[in-house]
Amino acid sequence: MGCCNRRCGLIAGAVFGAVLAILGGVLIPVGNSIIQGTVEKEAVIEPGTTAYGNWIAAGAGVYRQFWFFDVQNAQEILQNGATPVVVEKGPYTYKTRYLAKENITFNSNQTASFLLPVGAIFEPSMSVGSEEDKVTSLNLAVAAAYSLVPKEIHSVLENLIKTSNSSLFQYRTVNELLWGYTDPMLKGELGLFSPYNGTYEGIFNVYTGKDDISKVGIIDRWRGERSLRFWDDKYCDMINGTDASSFAPFVDKKTPLYFFSSDICRSVSASYEETMDLKGIEVYRFTLQADTLASPTVNPDNSCFCRNPNTTKNCTLAGALDISSCQDGRPIFISLPHFLHGSQYLRDAVKGLNPNVEHHVTFLDVEPTTGFTLRFAKRIQVNMMYGPSNVITVLKKVKDYTIFPLVWMNETALLDDETAAMIKEELISSIEMLAILWKALLGSGLAIFALCSIAFCIWKGK
Fold this sequence. Notes:
With 462 residues, the chain is an alpha+beta fold. The chain contains nine helices and 19 strands.
């Protein structure tokens, strides 16, 4: 009877251990399925979900930092045709994206439409000086008029410049250059971002992910259109991806993230660079690639972004995107700060530029399970183009077309401690608990099964 009990006990122990191991193994797909279902449910853009709360208004503080290029030798440029020398001045920091979306409407095709109000509040504690600091910069009116006014009537423009006492450069406050001033030549309001406060971006139409979570946040329409009207090309006019604030859950390192930026009037993509720790949360860093603004000779996909062969060295110029077609013809070029990844010609034409990948590249830090962007830095530079003229006095010494840097901007946000704690508590802790339980069941089950099996074999051998 004792031998029977011992044998039965060892067999029962082995069976129990096997059952625990099986439960541990089964827990992996079941647990993953539960987590996936929960994440996908909370990622849908609809009232009551985690995503909706973050989507309706930015949870973290979003700031725009501006660095101006202060011209050091304005008179030498005008009188002798000297190469411009600039010194970076900044940052001047503003809080933005603090207003909630308006006119939110959920549509029958599983999209949501909305308007995005914009505003900027100066942050003195995050700035090097006040908004009343002055900068010597390119005269926006003169540079714009040079391109907008036909060369045949540049004599009229010359007269306007002289009678208004204007020049190629101007000395204005940070506030004026960013948000607007009354220009003496045009008798109207001008500014790099004028008008801004009290205006709106949109209308946007984005997929909610209700019927297909892989489409969540993807822009369906912008300003009522599914494609842009700027580039006269199907490829370049595509509106791809989200607004970069979030992506579909379960981000794959191998797949680029696509997003549309109205600031640069086009869609771009970012590729995985590295895995990082952000306040105890694992994130994937995606960066804008070096060939995003490459010349068509390097990146043929950019051929349709080349608008004017004359000002872009027959479309061989890299690092500057002509967005005049979405700026009412004004000669505005977008680049990375200090012409990072741009042609050497751009940096030779203006002295004082020092591109640095660490400080000037655009990146997104994305939590891979939820697809939420927890930290980002969108860095772009605004430039204007001017060129030589035999008629306009202030341009007679100019030797060639010049893409002149005005200001570069870093729009950035960092996950706050409260949101980080919430993500760690609700998401990461659940995943870690599941992993611990799985390992405990599998490990203990296998150990019990092995010990009982060995003991049974020893007993049977006797």
